[in-house]
Design brief:
Radius of gyration of chain B: 33 Å
Largest interface: A-B, 26 and 22 residues
Largest sheet of chain A: 6 strands, mixed
Structural class of chain A: alpha/beta
Order of helices and strands of chain B: HHHHHHHHHHHHHHHEHHEEHHH
Largest sheet of chain B: 3 strands, antiparallel
Strand content of chain B: under 5%
CATH superfamily of chain A: P-loop containing nucleotide triphosphate hydrolases
Distance between the termini of chain B: 67 Å
CATH superfamily of the largest domain in chain B: ABC transporter involved in vitamin B12 uptake, BtuC
CATH class of the largest domain in chain B: Mainly Alpha
CATH class of chain A: Alpha Beta
Number of domains of chain B: 3
Strand order of the largest sheet of chain B: 1-3-2
Shape of chain B: elongated
Radius of gyration of chain A: 18 Å
Number of helices of chain A: 9
Oligomer: heterodimer
Number of domains of chain A: 1
CATH topology of chain A: Rossmann fold
Shape of chain A: globular
CATH architecture of chain A: 3-Layer(aba) Sandwich
Helix content of chain A: 25-40%
Order of helices and strands of chain A: EEEHEEEHHHHEHEEEHHH
Number of helices of chain B: 20
Number of strands of chain B: 3
Strand content of chain A: 15-25%
């Protein structure tokens, strides 16, 4: 079974089509990098898969279920800039939000939920920071809190929107380590990656879009000058730069 | 007992008892709700809705229905209007708010000036008249409070997620649009219920200030709501007593007290009060200066344990009178003692402290040259910064790391 099947998907944002006629099927248990230039519709695609946007046309199914039935199958980790870091919530509060779906409307958290929150925090090495207000953490620690929240959601699919922006090398490594661990547990992970650095070669597969689907496949198949050029038309200098770095 | 009488006396009058109940209710409801306004940055929206209830007063009078219904109607209608303009045009929310509420407010003024009803006192509508609260008003306020608090308690975690991360809220299937309008409805209800007490113009104060104050003091939403409610209740009581004994406008007094508490929190909040930040900075500056003096004296006395004021002043780059007053402070702290007017030396305590500073400085220089590969001639400045933040433990670590060095890169002896 495919993790995600997208067929002929068109999505508009503020009345302008941002994604046009994308058709792609993605196998489970892998780390997929979503790349493309600014305004290519990377975040929109994530949000569409999450069932957050109305579709102009086409279909999305997650593990062969329509997205309306499958909403709880994907956890979303927002871009850092989308979060109000002064908000009066502690690390524990944020991770507990990952349990809200399981707890249900009007009800309160049970022992099991507290245990899962604690484990998720341990998994990210954040157990000593449970009572910190989220603004009192470093950028890397903040990113881990949201990863812990996604873990607590216990979903089959995780979606990370630009997780490597503004984090240190240590956190970058621990995000990769965690993603590999989750993959080995059978999860499928999508990562929006804006920078075209050598890091994109670490993904199991790459989804290159520029409103339309440009290419999907292994990094060695997608990360080729002619294909990248198609998506980043007229940005050859950038490409040359990557090529030179690639030699190192 | 006199003081107690002062507290109890006002409430022999029935109108004062009603005023007390109304103020306390408003204090609690609006303060709890103010926490959402603060975290959702809705202060301007709250202000808009409060002004937009004015035409409701006139319409209710014309249709001979309850003010409560009329006010709520125009308040909610304006909130919806703002939402529609924002969603279906490129106008941003703050502009939409500015346009809609002034229009609604002007319409209200126009209607009232046309009606010229004797029973409607514009002054009371704008600035409140808690002493004239009727039993019906009181019941409506109580019902409003009950509804608002129940909704907030029952939907607490959902509203928290909605306010903090609406994208995730939507992704787990919460009805975010419904929540948005639910909060606006609660806001409108609270505003209408608070009108008698503080009036249209000042109601926004009670819907922002207690929450803003609590926001400076705590780091979790439930405690923020609790503290905000306490502030609201205290302000309400204080306002009422002041208006009784000094015959001033009670609504304005309530708001002033709340504003005063905000200023106190801004200055003295243990979490991030401006005053503490200032003092902390001053302390660091001062202790750095003390340490600079001690190392200068150590270098000048060079084992002889006597130094002249003028030499020290030159070494730290301050004038002699400044150096004198600093050295006097060091004498009071028992770090140095004067031998004559110009000559002084370390006490035992001062010598220990100075040796440690020198030790830290020379250890850091050795470390930076030996381990960080920095050239010996350029490590002085960095070592000077590091010596001020060095503890005994860190010094021990460096000694271990460098295998017990005896001299620094410049060949000077590292003190024990």
């Amino acid at each position: 079974m495919n993790a995600i099947d997208i067929s002929n998907l068109t999505v508009s944002y503020d009345k302008h089509p941002v994604i046009r006629a994308i058709t792609v099927s993605i196998k489970p248990k892998q780390i997929v990098g979503i790349i493309g230039p600014n305004g290519a519709g990377k975040s929109t695609l994530l949000k569409a898969i999450m069932g957050l946007l109305p579709l102009d046309s086409g279909n999305i199914s997650i593990f062969s279920k329509s997205i309306n039935e499958a909403k709880h199958l994907a956890a979303y980790i927002p871009q850092r800039s989308e979060i109000d870091w002064d908000f009066p919530v502690t690390v524990k509060d944020v991770v507990m939000m990952g349990r809200y779906k399981h707890i249900g409307l009007f009800k309160r958290a049970k022992k099991e939920d507290y245990a899962i929150v604690e484990n998720s925090l341990k998994e990210l090495g954040m157990q000593d920071f449970t009572n910190r207000q989220i603004g009192e953490l470093s950028g890397g620690q903040q990113q881990r809190v949201f990863l812990a929240r996604a873990l607590a959601q216990q979903t089959e699919i995780l979606m990370l929107d630009e997780p490597f922006v503004g984090v240190d090398a240590a956190t970058e490594n621990s995000i990769w380590e965690l993603m590999h661990r989750l993959k080995s547990q059978g999860k499928t992970i999508f990562v929006v990656n804006h920078d075209l650095t050598n890091m994109v070669k670490k993904y199991d597969s790459l989804l290159l879009i520029n409103q339309r689907l440009v290419a999907y496949g292994k990094p060695s198949e997608v990360f080729k000058p002619d294909i990248i050029n198609k998506a980043y038309a007229g940005r050859l200098t950038l490409l040359d730069e990557i090529e030179t770095k690639g030699q190192v | 007992m006199d003081f107690l009488n002062y507290l109890i006396d006002p409430f022999q009058y029935e109108f004062m008892l009603r005023a007390l109940t109304a103020s306390l209710l408003v204090g609690v409801i609006s303060s709890v709700l103010s926490c959402y306004l603060v975290v959702k940055k809705w202060a301007l929206l709250g202000d808009a809705i409060s002004h937009a209830v004015l035409p409701g007063v006139a319409i209710a009078f014309l249709l001979k229905i309850s003010f409560f219904i009329g006010d709520l109607f125009t308040g909610v209608l304006t909130a919806l209007g703002i939402g529609i303009v924002t969603k279906y045009s490129k106008i941003k929310e703050d502009t939409a708010i500015g346009v809609m509420f002034t229009t609604a407010f002007a319409f209200g003024i126009l209607l009232l000036s046309l009606i010229r009803a004797k029973s409607i006192d514009l002054y009371h509508i704008l600035f409140g008249n808690v002493l004239g609260v009727s039993t019906t008003d009181l019941v409506l306020t109580a019902v409003t409070g009950f509804v608002v608090l129940i909704v907030i308690i029952v939907l607490f975690k959902e509203l928290l997620l909605h306010a903090f991360d609406p994208v995730m809220a939507a992704s787990i299937g919460l009805p975010t649009t419904l929540f948005h309008y639910l909060l606006m409805f609660l806001l409108s209800m609270t505003i209408v219920a608070s009108l008698q007490t503080v009036g249209i113009v000042l109601v926004i104060a009670m819907l922002v200030t207690p929450g803003a104050t609590a926001y400076l003091l705590v780091k979790r939403m439930p405690t923020m709501m609790f503290i905000a409610a306490l502030i609201g209740v205290f302000s309400a009581l204080a306002g009422l007593y002041f208006s009784f004994y000094f015959n001033v406008a009670s609504g304005a007094m309530m708001v002033l007290v709340a504003g005063l508490i905000f200023v106190l929190a801004f200055l003295f909040s243990p979490k991030d009060g401006v005053v503490w930040k200032f003092i902390k900075k001053r302390k660091i500056v001062y202790s750095t200066r003390v340490e600079d003096y001690l190392t200068a004296i150590y270098r000048i006395s060079n084992g002889s344990n006597s130094a002249e004021v003028s030499e020290v002043a030159k070494s730290v780059g301050e004038n002699e009178s400044k150096a004198y007053s600093m050295l006097n402070r060091l004498t009071k702290q028992g770090l140095i003692e004067f031998k004559s007017k110009n000559l002084f030396g370390f006490t035992q305590k001062g010598l220990e402290k100075a040796s440690f500073m020198i030790k830290a400085h020379r250890l850091w220089e050795s470390y930076l040259v030996g381990k960080a590969d920095m050239p010996a001639e350029s490590v002085h400045e960095l070592a000077h910064k590091l010596e001020h933040v060095t503890t005994e433990d860190i010094a021990e670590e460096i000694i271990k790391e460098l295998k017990h060095p005896t001299k620094d890169p410049h060949g000077k002896v590292i003190p024990k």
